[in-house]
Predict the structure.
Amino acid sequence: MARIIGGVGTTHVPSIGKAIADGKQHDPYWRPFFAGFEPVHQWLAQQKPDIAVVFSNDHGLNFFLDKLPTFAVGAANEYRNEDEGWGIPVAHAAKGDAALSWHIINGLVGDGFDITMCQDMLVDHAVTIPLQLMWPNGDWPSIVPVSINTVQHPLPAMARCLELGRSVARALVTYPKDLKVLVIGTGGLSHQLDGKRAGFINKDFDRLCMDQLSGDPEALTRYSIPQLVELAGAQGVEFLNWMAMRGALCGTVSELHRNYHIPISNTAAATVLYENRPKQQRKAA
Ligand code: DHB
Ligand code: FE
């Protein structure tokens, strides 16, 4: 059986890729952000996950506005990155695990998620930057990319994304191979890249989101998508990826680490690490 050992939420701002390429991790601007990954590195070195299921949103590299699935799951043994025009190096390809992807796809469709299945899928900065941040030596685990539309409205609801994560978790329980799985949610927190509110950041709302995501994620489903846009900014809706990640943590969840730093580029940058332990079995009376 595959086991979900934990979850990570992280920002995916492209300029982080330039900072990594230029070795700026210790510069005063970048230090408070990169330092937030040190506890994550230590935990990953101890836990050694075999697979990472990555919930993120594509920004036009793989899907565009003409054809944009609400939920799409990669079913390949390799996922390439390409130049997106941000001026950052193209990342090396991430390994995939097509057999595991198909198992998850079967579970999702069985649970009523009419997802798009992608045997060929490019991954953009929303996948590669988090992998670079978490495994700076390039030794990434195999991934199952799950793409959530946070770009073109109508977007899926907060509750639907939480349920998507839960469905992935249910599928993993019935996978015959003994694998340690990490779930990752990327993007956010509050930010808006264009329009009248460009540069918008909402520290209070970000804090509330992180607090409730940890202890009571269900409570966050009270926010509609228009409310989320209002409170977190037009691109702050990337928090949907974090909701899916959190939904996949169905055991006893402990927050091991949190970092919040404003700004990285136009974004309130946040990193969280959760541990997910199997729920204690009730003893027979
Ligand atoms: C930025 C943030 C994003 O989430 C993104 O996808 C691209 C750019 C930014 O703050 O620069
Ligand atoms: Fe983004």
